[in-house]
Design a protein that fits this description.
By secondary structure, the protein is an alpha/beta fold. It has a single domain, classed as 3-Layer(aba) Sandwich (Rossmann fold). The protein is built from five helices and five strands; from the N terminus they run βαβαβαβαβα. The strands form two sheets. The protein has a three-stranded mixed sheet with strand order 1-2-3, with no helix packed on it. Strands 4-5 form a two-stranded parallel ribbon. α4 packs parallel to α5. The longest helix has 14 residues. The N and C termini lie far apart (about 30 Å).
Length: about 130
Amino acid sequence: MPITQYVNRRYLSEIASRVNDRVQHIILQYRGDLDAQLLELSDYIIIKASSNVFQSQDLNNILAKHQVDEVIITGFNAEYCCLFIAVVGIDRGYKITYIEDATASVNNGDTYEMLGLDIVDFVGCILD
């Protein structure tokens, strides 16, 4: 199963009023193939080499060039990649927006011996 983190135009347009005109569409791909529509809508594509996407000098250059101060996180494996990206982003001074409706996990509460745990919601609560 491909694991891809992306921000698409629909979610960006919902928050555009508070972000500003410096918003760029960046796809962070870990592995797998990207949907053709995502490729068409993307301004940049960054290949993720680890759960800490901020290790990518290409991404850091793009964020600095466009004076980005807010990072919007969506993707797969909320309790791993999404959470770690958020923590590192906060540490680097970015405002973090985590969109639960555009985030998922392959795991569930049984995985962590916590019956009924909604992992995506749990990560959202941590980041609030």
